[in-house]
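User: My notes are a mess, but here's the protein and S-adenosylmethionine's SMILES. Can you give me a structure?
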Amino acid sequence: MDVCEGDVEISVPGARDGAAEGAGDDVFYNPTQELNRDVTVAALDAYAEREPRASTYLDAMAASGIRGVRAAAAGFDVTCADVDPEAVALARENLERNGLDGAAVERDANAFLHDSETVFDVVDLDPFGTPIPFADAAFANARSLVCVTATDTAPLCGAHQRSGIRTYTTLPQNTEYHPEMGLRVLLSALIRTAARYDTAAVPILSHVTRHYARTYLQLDARATSADDLLADLGYVHHCEDCLRRTHERDLIAHPPDACDACGGDRLLTAGPIYLGPIADPAFARSVREYVTDGMGEAARARRLLDTVAAELDTPTHYDQHRLCKQWSRPAVGMDEFVDSLRDAGFSATRAHYSGTAFKTDATVTEIRDATGE
Ligand SMILES: C[S@@+](CC[C@H](N)C(=O)[O-])C[C@H]1O[C@@H](n2cnc3c(N)ncnc32)[C@H](O)[C@@H]1O
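Assistant: No problem, the inputs look usable. Here's the predicted complex:
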């Protein structure tokens, strides 16, 4: 089967309807990740503008090679690697088919990254499930940017809590802001991993959908920068009764005995999670400029990047419908809702996690009062 994405056309083995990720014929090409790949190509273009010396790109888990082929078409010096020989042959064929230079190699990502003969400016980790088994090798060896996809959303967001604790060595909690919980758990683990190599892995763009979290981490190889970033790790204390959260930047958690808004004692503490900005707004705006009309998910990518660029960088978002249910109130349009918070003097924006998600510096009690009749 031939597939067109962006400026390239590749061949992939026929997809089987309903096959689980990584289990069926869609092992080599997952159409639901097209938005992820469109944003990747735009992010690579924007990154090349920001860091003109960044020219080599490793698609460390290439499968069909679609991501690497698109990166090569964007001008990067690309290597597609995979442990599966069929994937490597397919990636090679797809580079050739598009008349693009680039290598396709049959290598385990960890071994390849640690190989002293190869070094890449940009390393892309796009495994099935968690990227954690590959994080050490990426941060120890990449020169400039590490791009990471994680598809194990249930462990990340606390729905499969024990698995999340094991994989990410942090405590996730299942809350109504689960996509953001998942992203901040992932970022916490990646930032702590990079810090072991005296490197700050600074998130310059991140986004989450139902299927995956994706982040772009710019590397700063100074121990003091790693220390500064670690200061953004901490805890969220979440009240299950009134939905109030408090955020605590500290290495040690100091959970309150009771919620200071409603006095309830059903409190959840998650962490250490990353509490800092998930994106650099200037970079997100620049990425948005590189989304082209030829991209299959251009409209969604532009909407997503506009929202991410404007999103308040405070953790953690609220969901209007969840709050309205809590307060037995009808929901209103999101623009009207966010405007009432601003009219009351608070900072407020939509958040990209869902159509009813928003961020504000108001507390849950202040939100209720500012948006009530
Ligand atoms: C989710 S697919 C990659 C999808 C692809 N990057 C894209 O954008 O369509 C994951 C790939 O990782 C490969 N893989 C699994 N373990 C690996 C390892 N240790 N080193 C390199 N590749 C690996 C699998 O063979 C599979 O092709």
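The mean pLDDT is 95.
User: Great, I'll file this with my notes.
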